[in-house]
Specification:
Layout (H helix, E strand, L loop, with lengths): L9 E5 L6 H10 L3 E4 L1 H9 L5 E2 H5 L14 H8 L5 H9 L7 E4 L4 H6 L4 H6 L4 H11 L5 E3 L5 H9 L5 H30 L13 E6 L9 E5 L11 E4 L5 H14 L6 E6 L2 E7 L3 H11 L1 H4 L2 E5 L5 H7 L4 E6 L4 H6 L7 E4 L11 E6 L2 E6 L11 E2 L7 H15 L6 E5 L2 E6 L5 H18 L11 E4 L6 H9 L4 E4 L6 H10 L3 E4 L8
Parallel strand pairs: 1-2, 1-4, 2-3, 4-5, 11-12, 12-13, 19-20, 20-21
Antiparallel strand pairs: 6-7, 8-13, 9-10, 9-11, 14-15, 16-21, 17-18, 17-19
C-alpha cells in the first residue's frame, strides 16, 4: 500500500450539509484542484465564484429520476476505486477515459433527522441516500489512493495536510474509518426504522445499534475505568436530549442516576419530585404544586438527599429553586428551567442544571439493552402502570381513597427500585424504601427500619410507617414480609400476587384489617 502523502489533483464534492463548504472548496481550487460536483453543491460553489464541473458533464450521462441517478457511474466509481499502481487498473482507466478522483467530500441525506421530525413513510424513503454511501464506501476502501471526508469538522485538517505536502496515510486511514462508521450508523438507522414499520413488536433477526459520541467522560463508575457518552438519536426526552444550563461536566454516574430519576418522575401526573442516589430512589413526593413536592421529597430522606440527583416533572421555578439551593446536589433535571430559577441557583457553580425540553412518555415502547460477555440482553420497556380500574381487591377491607392513591404511587416507585423492593408511602410521600435485597422479608425490614430511623432523626414521636401503605415489586412468597410491614403500622398493601401461598398472605392482611390489592404484574428490576 502506498505510504507517501497523497497529492490531490481532482476532488468530487456532493454534500447535503454545506457548513464551511465554500471556503473549503475555494482553498482547494486555489491549490489547482479540479472540482467535480452535483446539484445544490455545484450551484452554491458556482454562485460563489468557484469553478466546478458538473458530474453529468464529466460522465457524459445526464442526471435523471429526480436526482436519484447521478453518481452511480463507472467514471465516478472507477475514478474512486482504481488502484493507481496496478497496471491492469490503470490500463482500464485509460481505455475507458476514467480520470482518477483523489478526494471525495460527501455527507448524506438527513434520514435520521427526517425520521425524528415525524415525517411520513414516503418522505423517509426519499431521504435514504444511495449514491452517497456507495461513493463513500468506494473511496474508503481505496484509501490507499483516495481521501474521503464525511464531516465538515475535518476540512481544516485536510487543508493543513495539503499545505504541508499531501494527506498522509494515517490521516487517510482515520478518515476511512470515520467514513465506514458513518455509513454503518446510517444503515443501522434505516434498518431500525424499516423494521419498526413492518413488525414494530418483533424481535429482529439482527439487532443493529449505533451511537454518536456526545461526550468523552473523565472516567466510568470508578476512576480506573474509561467511559464515554453516546447518543442514539432516539427522540425520548431525557439526559440525551437535555441542554446543560450550568455546572460542571456530567460524569458517568451523573448520567446514569439522572436517567433513572427522570424516567421515574415522568410516571406521575401531579407535580412530582424524585431524588435518586446510586440509581435508586430515596425520596419521592407528589403534591398540588412543585415547591410542596420538592419540600416533601427532601423530607422523605434528608440524609440520602445529600449529593443526590433531583428530577422534576414541571419546569423548575424560583420557589422550588430556593428550596433546592439549601442542599448539596449533583444534578437537577426538569422539562425546562425558568430564568428566575437560574438566577436563584447562579451561585451554585458546580450544580449541573439540565433542561430536557419535555418528559419521556411512560407509555411509549422501546428497547432496553444490557451487555453480557459476548452478547446482549434486550427487552421492551416496562410499561406496567396499574390504575384503580385494573387492580383487584383481595381482602375484606377496601382501601380508602387516600390509601389507594398512595398504593398506586408506591407500586410505581417500586417499579424503579432494584429488586427485591419494598416501598412505604404516606400522604403522597415515600417514608421508607428497602431496595436491592436478596430476600423480600429483608427488604421489608429495611423499609420499616428506615421509616423509624427517619422519624427519629426528624424528632417525630412515632415511626413514619404508622398509617403508611406498602408496595412490593413482586409477590410476597410468605406472609412474613407483609407481616413485618403491618406490625410496623402499615394499613394497606399492593403487590402482584401469584404466589403459592397467596391465601396465607391474604389471611394475614385480613387478620390485621388491612386492605390489599393485586396488580397481576411483577415489576422486577435487576
Amino acid at each position: 500500500m502506498p505510504s507517501a502523502p497523497l497529492t490531490v489533483r481532482r476532488a468530487l464534492i456532493s454534500v447535503f450539509d454545506k457548513t464551511g463548504l465554500v471556503p473549503f472548496a475555494r482553498a482547494l481550487a486555489d491549490r489547482g484542484v479540479d472540482i467535480l460536483s452535483t446539484g445544490g453543491s455545484a450551484r452554491m460553489l458556482a454562485e460563489s465564484g468557484v469553478t466546478v464541473v458538473e458530474v453529468a458533464e464529466h460522465t457524459g450521462f445526464p442526471e435523471m429520476m429526480d436526482g436519484r441517478l447521478k453518481t452511480l457511474h463507472p467514471k465516478i466509481h472507477g475514478g474512486l476505486l482504481g488502484l493507481r499502481e496496478d497496471p491492469g487498473h490503470t490500463a482500464a482507466m485509460t481505455e475507458h477515459g476514467i480520470a482518477p478522483i483523489d478526494l471525495l467530500v460527501v455527507n448524506l441525506y438527513p434520514f435520521e433527522r427526517t425520521v425524528a421530525s415525524g415525517a411520513d413513510f414516503a418522505a423517509c424513503i426519499e431521504n435514504i441516500d444511495i449514491g452517497g454511501p456507495a461513493m463513500i464506501r468506494s473511496a474508503a476502501k481505496n484509501h490507499a489512493h483516495v481521501a474521503v471526508v464525511v464531516d465538515p469538522a475535518d476540512y481544516d485538517a485536510v487543508l493543513t495536510d495539503l499545505a504541508s505536502g499531501g494527506i498522509p496515510l494515517d490521516r487517510r486511514r482515520h478518515l476511512a474509518a470515520k467514513a465506514f462508521a458513518r455509513t454503518g450508523a446510517y444503515d443501522t438507522a434505516i434498518a431500525a426504522w424499516f423494521q419498526a414499520q413492518v413488525e414494530p413488536t418483533a424481535t429482529p433477526e439482527r439487532l443493529l445499534v449505533a451511537g454518536t459520541l456526545r461526550q468523552a467522560l473523565r472516567y466510568g463508575e470508578n476512576p480506573h475505568q474509561s467511559a464515554a457518552f453516546y447518543v442514539t438519536g432516539e427522540a425520548r426526552p431525557g439526559v440525551a436530549t437535555a441542554t446543560q444550563k450550568g455546572g460542571k461536566e456530567l460524569s458517568y454516574n451523573n448520567l446514569n442516576d439522572t436517567d433513572a430519576a427522570y424516567e421515574l418522575v415522568a410516571e406521575f401526573d401531579d407535580p412530582a419530585c424524585v431524588i435518586v442516589k446510586h440509581a435508586t430512589p430515596c425520596g419521592v413526593a407528589v403534591a398540588q404544586n412543585l415547591v410542596h413536592s420538592v419540600e416533601r421529597a427532601i423530607k422523605s430522606d434528608p440524609e440520602s438527599a445529600f449529593g443526590g440527583i433531583v428530577a422534576l416533572n414541571r419546569p423548575l421555578d424560583g420557589p422550588s429553586a430556593e428550596r433546592l439551593k439549601e442542599l448539596f446536589l449533583e444534578v437537577i433535571i426538569a422539562p425546562e428551567i425558568t430564568d428566575e430559577a437560574m438566577a436563584v441557583l447562579a451561585a451554585k457553580t458546580n450544580l449541573r442544571l439540565l433542561a430536557a425540553h419535555g418528559l419521556p412518555d411512560p407509555t411509549a415502547g422501546g428497547r432496553l439493552i444490557r451487555t453480557l460477555a459476548g452478547g446482549l440482553l434486550v427487552q421492551s420497556r416496562d410499561l406496567a402502570r396499574p390504575t384503580r380500574d385494573t387492580v383487584n381487591l383481595v381482602t375484606d377491607r377496601v382501601p380508602t381513597a387516600v390509601e389507594l392513591r398512595d398504593l398506586l404511587m408506591g407500586f410505581t416507585v417500586a417499579k424503579h427500585c432494584k429488586s427485591n423492593a419494598i416501598v412505604l408511602v404516606k400522604d403522597g410521600m415515600t417514608v421508607g424504601i428497602g431496595s436491592g435485597q436478596t430476600s423480600r422479608v429483608e427488604a421489608a425490614r429495611q423499609a420499616t427500619r428506615r421509616a423509624a430511623d427517619l422519624a427519629y432523626a426528624a424528632g417525630e414521636s412515632s415511626s413514619r410507617a404508622i398509617g403508611a401503605v406498602v408496595a412490593s415489586d413482586a409477590f410476597f412468597p410468605f406472609p412474613d414480609g407483609l407481616e413485618t410491614c403491618l406490625s410496623a403500622g402499615c394499613t394497606a398493601a399492593i403487590q402482584p400476587g401469584g404466589a403459592k401461598r397467596d391465601e396465607d398472605v391474604i389471611a394475614a392482611a385480613n387478620s390485621r384489617s388491612a386492605a390489599m390489592l393485586f396488580t397481576g404484574q411483577r415489576v422486577f428490576r435487576h
